[in-house]
Amino acid sequence: MFHGEGYTSEQRSKCKSMNFGVAYRQSAKTFQEKHKIPEEEGQKFIDWWWSRFRGVHQWEKGVETLIHKPGYLESP
Predict the structure, then answer these.
(1) CB neighbours of 6 closer than 8 A, spacing ≥ 6?
(2) How does residue 64 score in pLDDT terms, banded at 50, 70 and 90?
(3) C-alpha span between 28 and 52 (Å, rounded)
(4) 40 has pLDDT over 90
(5) How far out from the chain centre does Cα 56 lie?
(6) CA distances (Å), 13 to each of 3, 8, 21, 32, 66, in order?
(7) pLDDT confidence tier of residue 2, bands split at 50, 70 and 90
(8) Measured between alpha carbons, how far is 32 from 43 in angstroms, rounded to an integer?
């Protein structure tokens, strides 16, 4: 659970760090080192994140295409 009664600011910070970490391509090994969780748990979270937010991957591929085209890069 990511919110609710009994949810601490430390838990929020950890979740926020992991959420942005996935988007910035941090590995399960990095999560193990930074957050003291088993590497397997970190990988499960990474896999869940990418399956849940599939549009991010598609958007990244579109941006990658624009980067290789001369002239401009458009940011949302």
Answers:
(1) none
(2) confident
(3) 17
(4) yes
(5) 10
(6) 12, 9, 12, 15, 33
(7) low
(8) 10
